[in-house]
Amino acid sequence: MATLAASLLPATASHAADTSVTVDFATSGGAPTYHASGTIYGMAPDGSLPQDHFFKDIKWHFMRAGGAQLNSGGYATSLADYQTRWNSTLAQYERTVALGGTFVLLPHDLWGADGTTSQGWPGDNGTWTQFDNFVTQLISDVKANNMTVQRDLWNEPDGSNFWGASQSQYLQMWSRFYAKVRAAFPNQLIVGPSTASQPNTSNTWWTTYLSYVKANNVAPDIYSWHDEPGDPVTDVGRANSTLTAAGLTNSRPYQINEYATLSMQSPGGGAWFIGRLERAGADGLRGNWGGGSCADTTTMIERSRQAGCSAPHRPRSGGAHRILRHALRDARNCGPRHRCLTGSRARQGRRARERGRSWDGARAA
Q: DSSP secondary structure string, 20-76?
């Protein structure tokens, strides 16, 4: 046991109370499980970069992608646009498998709804023909290439950037998509709903979704959401409560498949999310918000430099504790200390502005 005490110097005549922190070094949380070692995009369109060690050094094991931003649209625009995005998706899938990772497929990007394009939504005007054809094409391509993927059926359907129709229309889409995927790939996992907001009993979009999937027997294998910002520990506890209230069970780790806003992507912020995701037992995929596009590969390599560090250290192999140590050492070499932000709907506007600013107004996922 060790007790650390620090006196806070008074800014005025009054003296602040001493603060003490007790740390029990004999208590261990267990071996690191690398829950934070996933990414959304950050790989070259042809899957060639970054080099292997940038993935292996952090025990990377999740990639989430679907060809976003490569052209003016996807299947909803033209079959040719879809093919461009599909070719990139396949290349990144093959690289992910070669690195021993799990690939999370993003159909919304293959459809073309990446926040930078203009197209309709599945089921507009009560018409599902184009969407059904899209799902048939996607299933055929996955089968033809013998792919084993997790399918994240749609990204951030609770916002307007990636789903511009009603929640009711989204739920109809979910059921149609779910049934076709389950019939074609009964042993492959379905992920959702990947909301921008976090689980909570006060989040009516989330609770409506849970009631629907329970009533229609279309619950995902893995429940997912985004923490941009958010606290994985708090949100996992709230997710458990909402699932219990809806009569649902969860047997797999939650997937927080976008975490950390641009301002949180510093060594200190990275260390904080590593710790919180480990404690929460949720799988995390860090957002690729530091570069110019989804295909940018420098963010994963150079994020410490962008935070203002004079001498960033590349994380070495040997465990999450080493990665954490290097992140903290980088933080000491930086200017202002990073201040971690936790979930607040009031900060969602800043999150959107950060993404827009980092991508010159072109936001995608």
A: EEEE-TT----S---TT-EEES-S-TTS--S-HHHHHTTT--EEEE--TTSSS-STT
Count the Cβ atoms, other than its own, within 10 Å of residue 205. 15
What value, to the nearest 5°, has the Cα angle with vertex 51 and ends 45 and 56?
A: 115
pLDDT category of residue 3 using cuts at 50, 70 and 90:
very low
Calculate the average pLDDT of the chain.
82
Residues contacting 68, CB < 8 A, separation 6+: 41, 85, 106, 109, 114, 116, 294, 364, 365
Q: Which of 130-144, 178-192, 217-231, 290-304 has the lowest mean pLDDT?
A: 290-304
Distance CA 75, CA 85 (A): 9
pTM: 0.79
156-160, 342-346, 348-352 — which one is most confidently predicted on average?
156-160
Distance (Å, whole) CA 241 – CA 225: 15
Cα-trace Rg, the chain? 21
Residue 358 CA: distances (Å) to CA of 25, 116, 167, 219, 226: 41, 14, 29, 35, 18
Omega into 229 within 30° of 0, i.e. cis? yes
Calculate the alpha carbon distances from 350 to 228, 344, 361 in Å: 10, 11, 13
pLDDT surpasses 60 at 233? yes
CA 251 to chain centre: 20
Enter the tokens of residue 176: 């149609």
H or E stretch covering 259: strand 255-259
Classify 111 as helix, strand or coil: helix
Burial class of residue 51 (count of CB atoms within 10 Å of its CB; 0-12, 13-18, 19+) = exposed
Tokens 């072109």 belong to residue: 362
Amino acid at 321: H
Sign of CA dihedral 156, 158, 163, 167: positive
Percent of the chain at pLDDT > 90 equals 66
